[in-house]
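Usage example:
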Amino acid sequence: MLLSVETLTKTYPAEGGRLTVLDGISMSLDAGRTLALTGESGSGKSTLLHLIGGLDVPDAGRVMVDGTDIAALDDKGRAALRRGTVGVVFQQFNLIPSLDVSANIAFQARLAGRHDPAWDARLARALGLEDQLGKYPEELSGGQQQRVAIGRTLAARPRLILADEPTGNLDEATGDRVLDLFLQLVAETGAALLTVTHSGRLAARMDAQLVLSQGRVA
Amino acid sequence: MIRAGLSALLSHWLRRPFQLVTLVTGLALATALWSGVQAINAEARASYDQAAETLGEARYPQIVPDGADFPQADYVGLRRAGWPVTPVIEGRLRAGGQSVRLIGIDPLTAPADIAPDTVEVETDLAGFITPPGLLYANPETAPALSGLGLRVVPAASVAPGTAIGDIGIVQGLLGQPGRLTRLILTGDAPGTPLQDIASGLTRRAQAESNDIARLTDSFHLNLTAFGLLSFAVGLFIVHGAIGLAFEQRRPVFRTLRALGLPLRTLIGLLSLELVILALVSGGIGMALGYLIAAALLPDVAATLRGLYGADVSGQLSLRPAWWAAGMVIALLGTAIAAAGAFWRVARLPLLASAQPRAWSRGSAAGRLAQGAAAAALGLVALGLALVGSGLVAGFVLLGVLLIAAALALPLVLHGVLVLAAGAARGALPQWFWADTRQQLPGLSLALMALLLALAANIGVGTMVQSFRATFTGWLDQRLAAELYVRASDPAEAERLLAYLDGRVDAVLPIVSVDAVVMGAPAEIFGVADHATYRDNWPLLSALPDVWDRVARGEAVLVNEQLARREALAPGDPLPLPGGDTRTIGGVYSDYGNPLAQVLIGLDAFRARYPDAPELNFGLRLPAPDAPALQRALTDEAGIAPDQITDQQSLKRFSLGIFERTFAVTGALNVLTLAVAGFAILTSLLTLSTMRQPQLAPVWALGLTRASLARLEILRALFLALVTFIAAIPVGLLLAYVLLAVINVEAFGWRLPMQVFPGDWLWLGALSMLAALLAALWPARRLARTPPAELLKVFANER
Amino acid sequence: MNAKGYSIALMFCASFAEAQGFAGLGTDAEGFAMPDAGYEFEFPTDHGPHPAYRIEWWYLTANLDGADGQTYGMQWTLFRSALAPTEGDGWSSPQIWFGHAALTTKTAHFAAERFARGGIGQAGVTAEPFEAWIDDWRLSGPSLSDVSLRAGGEEFGYDLTLKTDAPFVPQGENGYSVKAASGQASHYYSQPFYEVSGTLALPDGQVEVTGQGWLDREWSSELLARSQEGWDWFSLHLGGGARLMGFVLRDDAAGDYTSATWIAPDGTPTPYPDGAFTAEPLRAAEVAGRDIPVRWRLKLPGQALDVEVTAVNEQAWNPLAFPYWEGPVTVTGSHAGRGYLEMTGYE
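Running the assembly step on the lines above writes:
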């Protein structure tokens, strides 16, 4: 079991008390599997993703990634987890504006000490970015930026990939093309993929689906 | 519409109070330093004017003697011949530990507008003119006169360091009964020629500007230049704050215009907003400037007294013109700082992404343009250095140099960063350099400010240190006698000489008269033929056997000031008062003296000025015997202790004057550096709020907030270090211009430049400390940013 | 005038007013000598200064006829005002001197003033040979019966000789001239018989003149009573060679005080006590912003005198540190003649 989530609870301060975003969620994901996490806006999808990625800490419950309880890690440990084990693809791409495309792709792998130029080159080719390697993010279109973000994540060969609406900022045709590439490459690396999405089309492409409603598994 | 628009615009400041604080602080600091310097200058100038006003030199022609004074019978003779003149006696009196300028006037013949306004309230004419009489004195000076045995009335309208009394009373106080020092012509001269009645007197037209004001012009120009520099440094802050505020409100501007607010109205509203902010900040700055000026003024007053003999009030008064000028400069500064931002608003397209442009990559074209401007300015500076002359050209040269250096800085930094990135291995270092380079446009204004402040610091520091080193050595040469004694009158001098006979190795009379040499006020000294001078006198250049020639009366020595002003060199003839001419035998350095000076042989001096009293003497004797003789002179020869000075005290006193001369410069330097530090702080804080989108991905990819914060600090330190290193050559160039151009023009002497790398280490450490402190706050903020804040960057529903 | 100018003027006003007799002189005289009713004049000594007294003047006026057919009036006065009843050396002298010079035509009036300290030689008076001077103004001669006068201002000047064989005429009771019912008095004598000739310098050129002059010499330490606010002083050359001196000291509180001396052509004086002489203003003119009587009716019943006195130039105003009216007048009525009128204290 690569990922296992047990009775995870997360609240945020809100007017007149605390708002419960996740209310005792439990779930799991095996290596090499893909899972779609769906639900209405505010159902807690993104929060769950952030907790699994070590970007935030839960109030209660456990997140076990590859046998480690990340809720028990300190800031440093969570940073190491983000570097080495988990890769995140954001809806807003979140590329590093000061680095060019090739440096962006290589960035996380190099941070994780797993940089493989040949793999980078293959990823770039597969993502259709060979001609864009010297450009800066602001010079790219949205689809190109999202492909760079996917490349950056895959280049580090994380065991668990988290994607937050990876095609949400793209039109349908571009989104479908990017998704095809993404799933193909994930399968090639053998990583597990957890995707947060509104899109039924996207969810249908995953091995399984989990629907959240008001912080619980529906 | 206008109200709604204005409230939409102003609400920005409420939501971003820190930006408001930055803007107000920057403008207030800039205004404060500028107006502080102006307040000091205004106070000093007012004192000069007041001093000149005392005798109406600017409005009335004066009749002056060839020598120091003349009998009052000449005055009565002129009055009885119909000359509308009023008599004046002027002299200095040591009282209460200070030298006071005493002025005696005749209230009956003096015109109503000479002598200060307060001398009037007193209608007790009898008390004023009949013994013991009374003195009107500046309130700061009055206490020193309390021991004179007459009533002293404090009067604010009397110039600092000055007391005014009836002519007869002052003649008595100065020990010059029946003598006058000048006459003021209050009306049209009658037909009878002046020479027929009083042959020793000459008429002098009213002065166009008073002597003290002219002498001190260079000093005040110096202060003004520093004030301007500080103001420029402050404007960097204002520019940054305004630029950011405009940048962040671009969506608001667009929305307002889309909702139907005309562009002109928008610009008008923004102008109104800035005018309000400028007035508020200007007001705060004026208050700060007043405090700065009040704190610095006593030092300035001491400097001006020591260096120029100018009495300046140590009390600051508020002048409406100063307030107005300060507010105007605040408005002007805001306008300059905001011009670019307005330009961009005016060209803002209505339909564009509402996304704020959080940062911009410095374009190569922009850097090239800056480099070209820097090079062009460098050429201008070179041209100025070659063909320019005069103090103003010197300061323009300084300004151009500094601007050129500032413009070139981003280029230099960019180059350094490109090199560093090229050498970097590893993802993080590469990202670090790349990211630093991209931040450069946002930081370069602050770094330019830092460069200016550091260069000014190095330049002025080098000048001051060179001055101190040279001056100390020069004092050792110049003050060779072990003791200096002053007799209070010729009889005492005779007693003193009799007593000293056989007790010392040599007695060197120090005699001088005031004269006019080559059309300007000068001092003529008689110099004894003695080894003291032959061995020690600091000659810069001389003919062979110069001291023999001087002793024979054939040649004279002139000081560097006179030689430079009149382009004189050894071997040139020098016309002396009285019509004869002597050869210039040598030129000597004479630091700290604003006047021209001529040294002639003692015998020649005595022949020329038989009436000049010989009251001052330098005594040569074995140094260990000096304290004993000093005591003996007091105990046995009855010389008052304050009439004897030993070499060490005299040197201490002279050095003290020079330390104070540069105390103000030093203080302004520190303040400028502080402003530059603040500029860095605000720039970093500003950037840090914009940098979340850039830092969040790096964090998400696996760096802790703490290590990101450390990198941020490292970045600031690195940039400060490079800027500091770049400032060293600029500062040295500045020092060279100060020493070789400005000082020569301002004071008439040139000092050899010496370099003090030890001081740079301090300054370097100081600038790194400033950068560290400036980076610490934003870095701490970053390290403590809750993950939730960073997560917002990734949130879907933004 | 700036504040200082104002106050210096105040200073002088104080002195001048003392000299003129206002400004509330103390009833005690602060060490100054007091006029003595039994004093006998001694000439030429008394032509010189009396520094023990607070105030003193040499007051010369003349009515002149020009070669151009015009009539002119001139005034020259040297005042001495002592701050203390002593003479001192050099600047420490408490004696202050000031001089007034004025020239009046039918249409113009010129005035100038000078100030000087005693003790240094800038101003003073010597009795024998007689000389009275301040700056370049000078009244000098072998004796006070034969003097020449030079003085002037920016736009005018005069160079005159004044001669007479007539004796000096004591005013009041043998030169003791009482000024108030409360007893204030001065030593006062005149020389009203000068024959004057010389040259006037006017903006348009020089004019040769001849005429009649009148000198008043007076010194005291307390001239007026406190409530007296000003005076009107007449010195008239009448047809037939007689002269009349008459003055009114105006006093709203205690009532006016008048005094007069009828001087026969041979110089014999007949003094008249308070009330014998009356002067009634008939018409006032606006002069320097105030109303000043320029036409008077004088009566001295003891000499059957009933005349109207009219200013030659109504605007004969001396705008000096202490301003007052002083100018030539013509006399019509029971007696014809001309003379001078001085009026002070009109606010």
